[in-house]
Design brief:
Beta-Lactamase, five-stranded antiparallel sheet, 17 strands, binds adenosine-5'-diphosphate
Length: 588
């Protein structure tokens, strides 16, 4: 406890006060005792002088001085006092401690002088005769001869010392005991007063260091009790508030981390307050080392974003920008200040991945360009032939049928293109998908072969069809599957010279149904193999167009295979032929 300043401030002044008070009482008491003891001794000397007066009276005459001296010696021994008899003229007549004949005249002694005038006198001083501190008492007495005498009784001060020392000792011990007792009481009192305060201080200290579970647990009465209760309820409120704040923060962080949008909040000096994993992923910084506390430019490397944040901070106006590619991604970033009204406290950056949107936008532009290009060629041909016919060729029996046939061919081409585009768009929109049923691929393949057989026959091509026995069923749309196989057969017929042969087959392989269309046609160069499934991709554009191709047939096949959770592939050799394969999961 003594190490506590509050306790020391309470205990030490009281202790000092008690020491001073008890010490003062001791000193005053000792003085009083000393005085009263001396007074008592003087009064005893007086009584003894009176007694001695009676005993010596008969001998108080000059002619009995020898007897008087003897008696004085005897009585002095008995009462342990120095007894001196002095004549009226100051001559010492008798003394029990010195030879009266050698003693000087005593008339000038203060106690004798006083007694001469008042009848009795007293003094304390060193004796010239015995050279010792003495207390004297003198009575003036009448002798039997009618003369006057001074009867002096005195005591050695050193004889009084043991008594006085005992007194002082008693007083000293009492003072010491009083101080000790009071100090102990004072200690207990100070401790009782200081302990709750010290406990409350250490409680407040624990609160300051974040220990919100501790309580004072004090049920004292009075102000300390009120203070303790107030501190306890303050700790309760603080605990609730902090728990709530933590929960809110955890909730916000959980929401932020589950967002696919990246979020970064900064203060007005662009120091990051918080950010989520999506922001780290999108902007390419490590989510493990939290960027909180770092400056925005230390984490975000995109110059357009940093420039925009500066502008938003100075103007207070929200900005939206598309940046990229950052780490191969395009981002849509919205930068605004918070709170939206009043004094800005910082910035919020919300970013989402627009790579897909940008890619679709590019694809859309490319697609529109391709479609326009595909449409323009037959349309300008039709327009050209129509103008030629209008300018007179219509009456030329030789040219008119040829031109009309060409116009018809280009219209067919346009029709093919529009049909293929419609098919593609239907395949890409899920609501346009037909119902998926259990289908027998053998039956579907057979139907497609029969449908294309006349076209093959026109080119003197032979189509063989091999369907493995007990082929498993597959889940899908027979109508779409037939279209896919028909596209492959159509290509095989188109790109195989007259007299060539085409084989269509269906078999089971590792839980899959495999459909293959093989031809002995012109084949596809290795460099083009990976691209033939792209929209509008053609190895030989004019040749394909000549054949009425649109460049969309194989991408339709690929789409159909994908919506059936299958795949399509090709192997080919220029001049030898090609094999297209559709692979679908089998039903078991
Ligand atoms: P197209 O309408 O031009 O046939 P596709 O998408 O069906 O368009 O085919 C894309 C290109 O792949 C064709 O232009 C052609 O060059 C090539 N191709 C497709 N099938 C064959 C095949 N069986 N033999 C050789 N080349 C083929």
């Amino acid at each position: 406890m003594l190490s506590r300043p509050f306790f020391r401030r309470l205990f030490l002044p009281y202790l000092l006060l008690i020491c001073l008070a008890v010490g003062a009482v001791g000193v005053v008491g000792a003085q009083r005792l000393h005085r009263s003891y001396m007074e008592q001794t003087r009064s005893a000397l007086n009584d003894e002088a009176r007694l001695l007066e009676q005993l010596l009276k008969a001998n108080l005459t000059p002619d009995r001085s020898v007897e008087l001296n003897q008696l004085v010696v005897q009585l002095g021994q008995t009462i342990s006092r120095r007894i001196t008899v002095v004549g009226e003229d100051g001559t010492v007549i008798a003394d029990n401690e010195a030879d009266p004949t050698t003693m000087e005249n005593h008339l000038s002694r203060p106690e004798i002088l006083t007694a001469a005038s008042l009848g009795q006198g007293a003094d304390i001083r060193d004796s010239n005769t015995v050279h010792d501190g003495m207390m004297y008492f003198v009575r003036r007495v009448d002798g039997t001869d009618g003369g006057q005498y001074f009867l002096r009784v005195s005591v050695h001060l050193r004889d009084l010392q043991p008594h006085l020392r005992a007194f002082y000792m008693g007083i000293g011990i009492s003072v010491a005991l009083a101080i000790l007792g009071s100090a102990a009481l004072c200690y207990l009192f100070a401790r009782r007063t200081a302990r709750p305060v010290v406990e409350l201080i250490s409680f407040a200290d624990a609160l300051r260091h974040g220990d919100l579970t501790r309580r004072t647990m004090r049920r004292d009465k009075g102000e300390i009790g009120q203070l303790a209760a107030a501190l306890d309820s303050m700790a309760d409120s603080l605990n609730r508030l902090i728990t709530r704040t933590r929960q809110d923060r955890a909730q916000i962080l959980a929401i932020l981390s589950s967002m696919s949008e990246g979020v970064i909040a900064t203060d007005t000096s662009q120091r990051i307050l918080l950010s989520n994993e999506a922001a780290a992923r999108l902007l390419g910084f490590s989510p493990v080392t939290s960027p909180a506390g770092r400056l925005l430019w230390e984490t975000v490397r995109s110059q357009p974003i940093l420039q925009a944040t500066g502008e938003v901070l100075s103007s207070g106006k929200r900005r939206r920008l598309r940046v990229g590619p950052i780490e191969g991604r395009h981002l849509d970033v919205i930068i605004s200040t918070f709170p939206p009204e009043g004094q800005h406290e910082g910035l919020v950056l919300v970013m989402h991945d627009s790579t897909e949107a940008v890619r679709y936008e590019d694809l859309r532009k490319e697609f529109v360009a391709n479609v326009s290009h595909e449409l323009r060629t037959p349309l300008s041909a039709i327009k050209g032939y129509a103008e030629t016919l209008r300018d007179g060729a219509i009456n030329d029996p030789d040219r008119a049928p040829r031109y009309l046939a060409t116009i018809e061919k280009h219209v067919d081409q346009l029709t093919n293109l529009v049909d293929d585009l419609l098919n593609l768009s239907r395949l890409e929109s899920l609501p346009g998908m037909p119902e998926m049923v259990q289908m027998d691929i053998g039956v579907v393949l057979q139907k497609a072969v029969e449908m294309l057989r006349p076209a093959a026959a026109r080119k003197q091509q032979n189509i063989a069809c091999h369907i493995a026995p007990s082929l498993p069923l597959a889940r899908g749309s027979p109508e779409y599957m037939e279209r896919a196989i028909a596209n492959l057969l159509d290509n095989a017929i188109k790109y195989t010279p007259e007299g060539g042969s085409i084989t269509a087959s269906a078999r089971e392989e590792h839980d899959h149904v495999i459909v293959e269309v093989t031809d002995t046609g012109i084949g596809i160069p290795a460099a083009d193999l990976s691209r033939v499934f792209e929209r509008f991709y053609r190895v030989d554009r004019s040749r394909s167009r000549e054949m009425g191709g649109t460049g969309l047939g194989l991408s339709i096949v690929k789409h159909i295979a994908h919506v059936h959770h299958g795949s399509v592939s090709v192997t080919s050799q220029v001049g030898t032929g090609s094999t297209f394969q559709i692979k679908l999961p089998a039903m078991r």
